Amino acid sequence: MASDGVPKVFSLKEVEQHVAQDDCWMIIHGKVYDVTTFMDDHPGGDDVLLQTAGKDASEEFDDVGHSKSAIEQLKDFYVGECSEVLEKKLESVTDAKPAAKDPPTSTNGAGFYSKILQFLVPLMLLGVAVALRKYSKKTADAKY
């Protein structure tokens, strides 16, 4: 971060130059991180970091499901922002068209029957088990 408190802004091209074991940067949600010093300590290994080095690794980072402490640890590696990635994300959100004129569909019907079945099937199995036990006792008593 710049000395005046304003984050340094990097271009995507600048970040793309940092893809080596001894110089590894990545972008996560528009923020640029220099993870070079973390390569040996990363629980998933340095290969995981090198695969996403020099590019937007937001999706890969989110897909793994990092812990709160891992997310908090990112602050230690923060070096600036990448406005190009933020702009692309903003464009994709603003370009997304609202749903067409299709009326909303209700999915409650399938959910309702599913809930009923989740309740009735075990209840029916219990009834069958009780009936079999009772029937088998009567036939066993009749034999002796």
TrEMBL record:
Coiled coil: none annotated. Pfam families: Cyt-b5. This is Cytochrome b5 heme-binding domain-containing protein. It is found in: Membrane. The keyword Chloroplast does not apply. The lineage of its organism: Eukaryota, Viridiplantae, Streptophyta, Embryophyta, Bryophyta. One of its GO terms (molecular function) is metal ion binding. The gene is LOC112274689. One of its GO terms (cellular component) is membrane. Its main location: membrane. Gene3D superfamilies: Cytochrome b5-like heme/steroid binding domain. InterPro entries: Cyt_B5-like_heme/steroid-bd, Cyt_B5-like_heme/steroid_sf, Cyt_B5_heme-BS, Cytochrome_b5. Belongs to the cytochrome b5 family. Keywords: Heme, Iron, Membrane, Metal-binding, Transmembrane, Transmembrane helix. It comes from the Eukaryota. The chain crosses the membrane at residues 112-132. The keyword Cell membrane does not apply. Residues 7-83 form the Cytochrome b5 heme-binding domain. Signal peptide: none annotated.
